[in-house]
Amino acid sequence: MAVKPEHGARWRRLAKFHRETLHGRERRLDKIGAELKRVRECVGLPQSVVEEAESLVKKYFDLMAGFPPEVMAVAVLWTAARAAVAPRPLEDFLKCSKAEERRVRRVAWRLKEEMRLGRRPIEDYVKALAARVNLPASVVKAAVELLERNRRVLFGKNPWVWAAAALWLGSLKRLGLLKALAEAAGTTPTSVRNAAGRMKV
To answer: Does the pTM of the predicted model rise above 0.85?
Structure first.
């Protein structure tokens, strides 16, 4: 809403506060995004890890808002790498950043606790992987139905691996797709194949 002089000083102050808050958030997100990409390249992580880290930043931005961008970037990358079965010691990340270890651990702990209370639906991981390797909607549907039948097996497991396994089975184990799905999920073909073997088709 455009604030005019006749609205008074109070409304003008509120409008200024809103602009500064909005632009400040966008600037911080830009800084965090740039730091994510820089640290990811330095550490040598798969693209799926940085995508998961970006989604964590957007989802839990308010939870980490009081920390510097470099701390937030390292914390979410470290967390996303562990969730994607591409774990690295925290020291590997700290070598590529000016972030303070104590603060990174504090943010990572907060993230872990928040994520423990609620995780993204497995369907989100299926759709994200399918988009990366250009799979049709029919394969996505088959994969989601397969995961629905295997909910009990999925509990506590890495969602990227199981989403990749379901898509591979949903495509009727298409030749050459296993490796592509494993790379997109940031894992190995063996892990995807093992997960597929544990599913009831």
So the answer is: no
pLDDT surpassing 70 at residue 20:
no
Percent of the chain at pLDDT > 70 equals: 84
DSSP code of residue 157: S
**Looking at the structure, do residues 152 and 97 belong to the same domain, yes or no?**
no
- The answer on 113 and 24 residing in a single domain is yes
Over the stretch 37-84, which tens digit does the pLDDT of each residue have? 999 999 998 888 888 899 889 888 877 777 899 999 999 999 998 887
Higher local confidence (pLDDT), 12 or 125: 125
113: containing domain: 5-117
Residue that is last in its domain, among 74, 101, 117: 117
Q: Are residues 131 and 113 in the same domain?
A: no
Query: Contact 34/17 with Cβ under 8 angstroms?
Result: no
With 0-12 / 13-18 / 19 or more C-beta atoms within 10 angstroms meaning exposed / middle / buried, residue 159 is: buried
Residue 23: count of CB within 10 angstroms of its CB: 10
Number of domains in the chain: 2
